[in-house]
Prior knowledge:
The chain is mainly β. It has one helix at 73-79, and strands at residues 14-17, 35-38, 43-45, 50-54, 57-60, 65-70, 81-83, 88-90, 99-104, 111-113, 118-126, 160-161, 167-168. The longest helix is centred in the middle third of the chain and has 7 residues, at 73-79. The radius of gyration is 20 Å and the shape is globular. The protein binds deoxyuridine-5'-triphosphate. Deoxyuridine-5'-triphosphate is lined by residues 69, 85, 88-91, 94, 98-101.
Amino acid sequence: MRSQPRDTGPVTVRIRRIDPDLPLPGYAHPGDAGADLVSAEDVELAPGERATVRTGVAIALPDGYAAFVHPRSGLAARHGLTLVNAPGTVDAGYRGEIRVTLLNTDPRTPVRVTRGDRIAQLVVQRVERVTFHEVDTLPESARGANGFGSTGGHADAAPTVAADGATSR
Ligand SMILES: O=c1ccn([C@H]2C[C@H](O)[C@@H](COP(=O)(O)OP(=O)(O)OP(=O)(O)O)O2)c(=O)[nH]1
């Protein structure tokens, strides 16, 4: 069966430039999921150091959406630069400046970020709100309570954590 492209036009997100000299977030290519966010600051991160960096923009997402701040793979692979809280969550009701908590994971080399550098990417997604319905017993499933490496695939897989918190290999 041929898959049909979804009929979705772009969602309009109101954005305010707190720092007028910086570019708006932008998609580098058609089809990209993330719009790049730039740094509003010059920062140097020592090995293992983190810093919360301004991006110069604030947004108002429509209800039912959230934006997620993701690391950029090139910065991660080349410099070990990631985000402490990846992905950061920007709530629909948040009107403050989007900030990015960068972390230099490299054990030896400092990372220098210059104002205007693209430091992270913002992925806007629909999100569901749920009603939590308390029950005594959950429905059975094939996975059950197995997780945390239970399916293997790594020589040093983490121990299995049971529903009661007990661990076993
Ligand atoms: O990487 C991030 C993560 C969050 N935020 C902003 C938007 C978000 O709506 C707000 C609160 O984020 P979160 O809910 O993750 O923080 P919290 O530590 O739970 O704080 P709060 O008690 O304010 O919800 O901070 C950012 O600018 N960048």
